[in-house]
Amino acid sequence: MTSPVKRALPATVIAALLAAPAASAQTPAVPSLSQSPPPISVGQVVLNASAVFAENNQPIRSGLVWRVYEDKGDTSQPTIVGRSSSPTPVFTLVPGNYIVHVAYGFASTSKRITVQRGSLNERLVISAGALRLKGAVGDSPIPPSQISFAIYVPEAQNSEGRLVIANAKANDIVRLPEGTYHVVSTFGDANAIMRTDLKVESGRVTEATLNHRAATATLKLVASEGGEAFAGTAFSVLTPGGDVIREAIGAFPSVTLAEGEYVLIARHEGKVYTREFRIESGLDRDIEIITQP
Fold it and tell me: Which of 31, 174, 181, 292 has fewest C-beta within 10 Å?
């Protein structure tokens, strides 16, 4: 496990990040205060909903998904009667019992209400914050396309924990319930993996950079040093103990590996070639196997 580099953000930046929409969602339109409220028919009730952070009571202005269910008071599946992605939705309901549910990323809360007449204002409190993750090798940032993060809730009976999200991208704002999370960072698609625990606080963005000790090796089978690589070569990268880390086929495939000792095996036209090599953190280089003694 490595200690991530964490940096406190200015309050204005935190507010903007928490209010920013998720990467795959569009920012919901905010109703204009100058608009007239919708007319209310006889026998209908207007529900005005909003949400705030538990820590600082600040309004949540984006990233919310609202659902209103009819509360039937039994074990049957509740019927959804309204939904919205507005930060301050207005629902028109008939008198009765309801369950108001709001989700903020992976965090959510709900409340049972009874509406009878006129209008009702409901403010729900969410204990949630966010993570923004990055990766680096030394002082060099890892390109977002080359790194991913898995986020887990720690569990006593499971060394890894309960998976929350499997493939979070660098710089994404991941909205989560308040609490401690186990983060696994994978650089490339081999064994360059780092782990750490991070705490999410309500109403705040926790920003962390996970530092990998790794480098990228380009594998080549050549007739002489610096020569042209043979196409169609099958490569296997193994630990000194014989465990396979990565297999690839091509003239010069690349693999990102954690710092350490490795054995490279190359197979071409029925012949097998081997060599040992070492990966040093931050030093990307070619690893050549020479066919001629």
Answer: 292
| Domain 5-9+129-211 classification at class level | mainly beta
Domain boundaries, the chain: 5-9+129-211, 31-126, 214-290
CATH code assigned to 31-126 = 2.60.40.10
- Gap between the Cα atoms of 235 and 155, Å rounded: 38
Total-model pTM: 0.77
Q: Does domain 214-290 have CATH number 1.20.210.10?
A: no
Residue 128: C-alpha distances to residues 14, 58, 176, 185 (Å): 13, 12, 6, 22
pLDDT in tens, 133-187: 999 999 999 999 999 999 999 887 777 789 999 999 999 999 999 999 999 999 9
For 79-135, the pLDDT digits (tens) are 899 999 999 999 999 999 999 999 999 999 999 999 988 899 999 999 999 999 999
